[in-house]
Design brief:
With about 150 residues, the protein is α/β, with parallel strands linked by helices. The protein has one domain: Rossmann fold, CATH 3.40.50. Helices cover about 40% and strands about 15% of the residues. The radius of gyration is 15 Å and the shape is globular. It starts with a strand and ends in a 5-residue tail after the last helix.
Length: about 150
């Protein structure tokens, strides 16, 4: 059985390493795909460019999306995801710095599911990512008719 995919979109090598270590230490059970800018993320999501052979019916189960990306911003990636029926329902958690929190709050109106601030403290970041994982695990397993 194939593992579900998580797309991590992050351009800062230090933040990417911290995110991947945190996910690994929390027993992540996803196949992790990394995109380092907004264009690469959209190519993956919409099966374009180097990802043209990817099955478009197999979207990631979760996207961790940095807000401040080169080429195409995280907000633009989110907008394009929400405009397309193939990616409309893919959960997106935005990774933000403290100075970007107001933009992330505005993105909630544009279809963002949640956001996590990127603190410099490893343990705080680890705890926040675990909270996000637990939220999605619980919401994805909850019965629809309760």
């Amino acid at each position: 059985m194939d593992l579900p995919t998580m797309l991590v979109v992050e351009d800062n090598p230090d933040h990417l390493e911290l995110t991947l270590i945190t996910l690994e230490q929390n027993g992540e059970t996803h196949h992790i795909v990394v995109a380092r800018d907004g264009l690469e993320a959209l190519d993956y999501l919409f099966c374009q460019g180097v990802h043209s052979d990817r099955n478009p019916d197999e979207q990631p189960e979760l996207v961790l999306l940095d807000l401040g990306l080169p080429k195409i911003s995280g907000l633009e990636v989110l907008r394009r995801m929400r405009e397309d029926p193939r990616t409309f329902f893919v959960p997106v958690v935005m990774l933000t710095s403290a100075s970007e929190q107001s933009d992330a709050i505005l993105a909630l109106k544009g279809g963002l599911n949640s956001y996590v601030s990127k603190p410099l403290d490893f343990r705080a970041f680890q705890a926040r990512l675990e909270d996000v994982r637990e939220y999605w695990r619980t919401s994805n397993l909850a019965p629809l008719n309760s």
